[in-house]
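A common beginner's mistake is to predict each chain separately and then try to dock the pieces by hand. The better habit, illustrated here, is to supply every component at once so that their relative placement is modeled jointly.
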Amino acid sequence: GEDVEQSLFLSVREGDSSVINCTYTDSSSTYLYWYKQEPGAGLQLLTYIFSNMDMKQDQRLTVLLNKKDKHLSLRIADTQTGDSAIYFCAENGNTGGFKTIFGAGTRLFVKA
Amino acid sequence: DAGVIQSPRHEVTEMGQEVTLRCKPISGHNSLFWYRQTMMRGLELLIYFNNNVPIDDSGMPEDRFSAKMPNASFSTLKIQPSEPRDSAVYFCASSLGQDNEQFFGPGTRLTVL
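With all components supplied together, the output reads:
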């Protein structure tokens, strides 16, 4: 079935850039999402990219999509301690029924 | 809007007891999702409903787990009997359409002793 994979942990120093990577299997994806989960809270949509785009930039966030390789990344420039959270990659597609599939989440640690 | 509401926020119970988790989705949303989150396994989709009808329950771990959605504004996830390995944070999410942005509740942290 469809699958979304991402590494579980990433550690960076404050001020550096963070790059969180994700791979997915469903080639019918229409949208790909990044959700953020802060400690003790539910997930919230951070940004998304339409499947016919290669890149989307939103302030410190840059989303890159390589549709051929089914690879999605989220770059956070000038990472701050407040960016410490779990970041989830998600995709929606119609393989096996139209629904959103989430990765397990990447826990970002930002060291001061 | 108050967002997705879940209750209780925390539940501590003993092995073998029945546990019922509750969710009120955002008014007007027609899709509802139940997830489980643990450190070891990350976020797992348990079941989702569309227009109150269960569409995919393939993520429900065992027959001990059951979920209902009697109307558009309420859903329950029941575990009977509960086991220590069920300890996790359980999230409910809702959306307008099953493939659109999902709005998550604050979660219920379940501890089974």
